[in-house]
Amino acid sequence: MTTPPGWYPDPDPAQRANSPSAERWWDGASWTGQTRTKAAVRGPLVAGVVGAAVLVTALVVSAVLTFGVRAGGAAHDQAGGGASGSEPAPPDGKKGGPGDGPGAPEGPEGDLPATGIDLPVLNGWEHDPFGPVVTTGEYKCPGSKKESCLRGSSSIVVAPTDSRSEEDTAKNDIERFARTAYSKGTYGGITSHEAVASEKTSVAGEDAYRVRWKIVNRTKPDAYVETVAFEHPDGSGEMLLMHTGFDIADSAPPLSDMDKLAEGVEEADDGGQDDPGEDI
Fold first, then answer.
1. What is the pLDDT of residues 30-55, one digit of tens each?
2. CA angle, 128 as apex, 151 and 211 as ends, to 5°?
3. φ, ψ at 93 (rounded to 5°)
4. Fewest Cβ atoms nearer than 10 Å: which of 24, 100, 172, 227?
């Protein structure tokens, strides 16, 4: 059984020496150039969703949307190595292809950040310097005081390769995203949900489909979570997912910000690492 795509410890000793928590994206067959610092990645609604090396899209919204952010955020969850000229070993440490043997990683953390696209920075929000991620309102997670959560978070990631239509992709993703974002460990688990929107829309000039849920958590606050699926505006045909989560609380961002974030998505010239510029 081959090692699935995901973030794994960087195989480059020099990189690890410089940043012990460095991770590199394994695409299922080889190491890519995308890197991040594990400590800077957490989850959609968990605070500390700041990216690391190249791109770290950790959606951290108030509910530990444990999407991959380990450094403290929740939204509402490398190359070359060894001797000079040698090819870095795959995640399982065996050349010639990854596997499931001893030493193989348990599994990837988080989704692959999208590149060439970015989110707007609304008033009161902060932009992650290494990826299409924006967050706001850090506080101690209700179910885990050792972790910090965020009142709101939004990020753009790459959809699974077997994605079909925008509608099917969004509908198939929303539950996974909701349960990852507002996890049992940080919010006690989701007890019920109400679908408040399931409709066609547009993002960055592309046809898109939105699914929005209002969820009830075992441990308050409750929240709104949304998945918007759309094709990359660069014409590559790559399907993307915009993950957004908002707490339902006085200190949380207004629900209208959820629409503004989607409306402000645009292509980025440098792989999603534009200067955020002024707040909207």
1. 888 877 665 433 445 654 433 322 23
2. 55
3. 80, 5
4. 100
